[in-house]
Design a protein that fits this description.
- The chain is α/β, with parallel strands linked by helices and about 375 residues long.
- The chain folds into three domains: about 140 residues, Response regulator (Rossmann fold, 3-Layer(aba) Sandwich); about 45 residues, no CATH class; about 70 residues, no CATH class.
- About 40% of the residues lie in helices and about 10% in strands.
- It has 15 helices and eleven strands.
- The strands form four sheets. A five-stranded parallel beta sheet has the order 2-1-3-4-5. Strands 6-7 form a two-stranded antiparallel sheet.
- Helix 3 links the parallel strand 3 and strand 4.
- Helix 6 crosses helix 8.
- The longest helix has 20 residues.
- It is globular, with a radius of gyration of 23 Å.
- The relative contact order is 0.09.
Length: about 375
């Protein structure tokens, strides 16, 4: 089976570029060709024909740093032009994943502050000392495969989600795809799945959040956690890009728990009570309940601390600053007081929302 191939454009021609190409190629999942950028008009013309032979495009954020090249633009300019061209039938340009890569300093200084650029890229990764090539390769392979599937023929939102019963969750989530006057292209579906469903808790949740809402400690439960996930496999998201992002349908998890607990709701029980229900129904004697994070007391978990990735009651948490405005069906992310004031936040770009500052200071004062 042939591998998906990405075109990687970077203005540098040094070891960092070679390392990225080799990092992906060594994983054996996708292939990479490397080129330097041209002037803008030539670049767009070149890509308009060349991308027919590729499954995705990787762009270095700053393409104008090499003084030997006649380049006066950056990655968002190219990405925007390509996204616009795809929507014009006469251009005959297929939709494909566009990936952004750069150093952390460049990304944070310019890209993170420019919200208009965020929607242009399907995924971004940093040029770092120890890149997770296995993880990156898995996601880029999934993106290429998903776009290929989208381009094969017209798809419906039910196809993309691989659910027929979409009426079971907030209708606002999918309403834009139900409008017959709204022309939908492959990128619209890709953007919706990644940016609106995968990147924010809501209809879909990650493994760590799943464990939190079930009251389970992943670390202390050993193999029983994996066994429980197998029991829940029917509720895993199986739609677009599912081979790159593991998510679960929260409405289905809620329904299952209500069924196995004889009518009880997850939100009405603490971690001990939730785990007791799961242990008894699924015969998982080694399943262990999660304990509150240091400085917290509640085990009515419904979130995780984004720094520690441990279960957290949102009432005891502090909302995370997010550059994108949340949709009505999306839930905020949280940090624990332990992460903010005791251990310290180490994950780059992670910080409390400014509206939480007074609450944080009051809690700090109470510990003096």
């Amino acid at each position: 089976m042939s591998k998906f191939k990405y075109l990687y454009i970077d203005d540098e021609n040094d070891q960092s570029v070679t390392a990225i190409r080799d990092g992906f190629v060594d994983e054996g999942v996708i292939d990479i060709d490397v080129e330097q950028p041209m002037n803008f008009k030539e670049q767009i013309k070149d890509l308009s024909t060349k991308l027919e032979h590729y499954d995705g495009l990787i762009l270095d954020f700053r393409l104008n740093q090499n003084m030997q090249l006649d380049v006066a633009y950056n990655a968002p300019s190219i990405a925007q032009e390509l996204r616009m061209a795809v929507s014009e039938p006469e251009m005959n340009l297929k939709s494909l994943p566009i990936i952004l890569c750069s150093t952390d300093e460049r990304m944070r200084a310019t890209y993170d502050a420019d919200k208009t650029s965020h929607d242009l890229f399907d995924y971004k990764f940093l040029k770092g000392d120890e890149p997770d090539w296995e993880r990156f390769s898995k996601k880029l392979n999934s993106l290429a495969n998903g776009y290929k599937w989208l381009n094969e023929k017209s798809r419906t939102i039910e196809d993309v989600l691989e659910r027929e019963d979409i009426y079971n969750f907030d209708p606002r989530i999918t309403e834009k795809f139900k409008d017959p006057d709204n022309k939908v292209i492959a990128y619209d579906y890709a953007h919706f799945i990644i940016k609106e469903l995968f990147n924010h808790p809501g209809a879909l949740i990650k493994e760590r959040l799943l464990a939190s809402r079930l009251g389970v400690s992943i670390e202390d439960s050993g193999d029983d956690w994996n066994t429980l996930k197998e029991h829940l496999s029917a509720f895993r998201f199986s739609g677009l890009f599912n081979d790159g992002w593991e998510r679960w349908w929260m409405d289905k998890i809620n329904s299952l728990f209500k069924e196995v607990s004889k009518g009880k709701r997850l939100t009405n029980l603490n971690a001990v009570q939730r785990v007791e229900v799961l242990k008894e129904f699924f015969s998982l004697k080694n399943l262990k309940e999660a304990e509150p994070i240091e400085s917290c007391v509640s085990s009515n978990f419904w979130a995780i601390c984004e720094e520690t990735k441990l279960p957290l009651d949102p009432i005891e948490g502090f909302k995370v600053f997010q550059s994108d405005d949340l949709k009505p069906w999306q839930e905020p992310k949280y940090l624990s007081f332990y992460a903010i004031a005791i251990e310290g936040i180490k994950r780059k770009g992670l910080k409390p929302h400014f509206s939480e500052n007074e609450k944080i200071q009051l809690m700090k004062d109470s510990f003096k």
